[in-house]
Structure formats: structure tokens, C-alpha cells
Amino acid sequence: MSIESGEFHRGRRLRRSPGIRALVRENEIRPADLVMPYFVAETDDPGFRKPIGSMPGQFQLSLQELEKQVGAAVKDGLLAVLLFGIPKVKDELATQAYADEGIVQEAIRRLKDSFPELTVITDVCLCEYTSHGHCGIVQKGGAILNDPSVDLLAKTALSHVRAGADMVAPSDMMDGRVLAIRELLDANGFVETPIMSYAVKYASAYYGPFREAAESTPKFGDRKTHQMDPANVREALREAAADLDEGADIIMVKPGLPYLDVLRLLRDEFDAPVAVYNVSGEYSMVKAAALNGWIDEERVVLETMTGFKRAGADIIITYHAEDVLRWLNK
Asked: What class, spelled out in words, does domain 28-251 have in CATH?
């Protein structure tokens, strides 16, 4: 084979113009792929809008400000949100996580009243609501009790669905929580409500900015006894399979960029929708570089989103979602 014979592969034929490249593009980002997380704070100030220092462009929002922010994004094509709550009062049993008038429960009602077609997903965890910042009930000596914590997590999920949530997303990584949530929802008539499980959630350093945003930094210790070791990949298959067996409808990999191999593995292994969480640390690094003029933010973010799709994600949870929607609308 030689250049003179013309027998070599001419891949550039399909790259020669924007139109041809679009015709053969294998993966594209759509508004339906994106879920935007929001932090809603319990406050007496209806205009409360507190910037999150480590996450430029993100805020803690009052109920009123949340409604405004989501309304603008819905106009740009946003179809789904993921809610995190920041209560006024925290205690050892995370009672505000499952209170009927809790901050997330009120946010669900307000958003579903204003935007009935919006898919409202809620994060189900206790860390934002406990005085110690851990994801479950803490025993004397600092051990996190699994089964009593699972009972409270299921109770929290039920309170969200009763308030109108379209889907619940347990993020705590307690063993058996998907089964407990599924059984409690079903027993209360919510058989049709799906569960998106944080099935493969690693004990990652990339969560740092989130803990400022959600005010959920542990007062002691860490979360390595329940979140996964970043070195492990076979364990991811076991965790995902277990959650699907327990009744999860969607499985998630978190974080995103450092775990694209895990995302691909789950996509190939399981015939279920797979989500990826483009977490706070990933977002903040891009934002910091963009604010310093070191990168083209739009191109980098869209390339990142495409990477998630190419690796197998059906759903992308990302703090970039509002920006991506604006860019797609240009």
C-alpha cells in the first residue's frame, strides 16, 4: 500500500465540513440528558441568595430565589433538577430530613406547583441534616450504625415522594437502603416512583466544594467506611448489581471524570439507565481555570459532557447544566 496507489484510509473525508461532521457525529448532548443540582436553604429572608465561594456561579437559595432560578433555566430547556436542602436546625437524628414541612419538602411543592412538567429528583441523605455531618446515626465512639440509619433514609424518601418528588436518589451508601426505600414506597402506594441510586459512590477528594455548599462537612472522621475505595473497580459491579436487585431503576457513578472507566464498565455490564455525577470539585477546577483565562470554558465543558455520553452515561448531573443549555440554544 502506498500514497500513490490511493489505497490508504481517508478519514478526513468525513471531517471536511461542519455539515459532514454533524452527519456522522456519534454522540450529542441534549437538554434531556442534563440534571441541574440546586441548594435550597431554610431562611426567613425570601431574597436569600448566598454565593458559594468555592463554586463560582452557584448559590444557596431561598425558596423564592430557587423558583426564580429554576424558572429561568426551564425557559432555556431544563427538564430535571436534583434538590439538596440546608435546614436551620440540625440534630443527631436528622429530624429535618424527614419533616413534612422540611426545606426540601417545601421546595418540591413549590417547584411542582410552578413547573408541573419539571422532573424533580431529591437527594436522600442525612449529612446535611445531622449536627455531626455524617450520613447516618453515629454510635458512641464514632461508628456509623447502618440499619437504624437505613430506617431514617427510607422515611426521608417517603416524605419527599409524599411532597410530590418524581424520583428519589439515595446517596448515603448505607447497605440495604435501596431495598428499604423500595419496600416503604411500595407499601404506601408509590409503586411507580423510581429510585436513582448513587450505586457507585467513591470516597473522593473531589467533593470538597460541595461540603461548603451543603454545609455537610463531618465534624470528625471521614466517610471511608461506607463510600467506596477509589482503587476498586470490581467492587463497583457488586454494588451496582446489589442496588438493581434491591429495586433501583437507575444506577449512578460518582464522581465522573476520574471514573470514566467505571462508567463504561457499568454501561457494558447492565441493561439499566446509567447516570454520572459531574461533581463539585470537577466543576470548580474548570471554573477556576476559566476565570484565569487558561481555558475556553464553553469548549472544555461541552467536551467533558460529550466524554460522559461517549463513556455510556444516559443522564448527566452537572452544575454546568444551566450554561450548557444556553450554549446549546445559541
From this structure: alpha beta
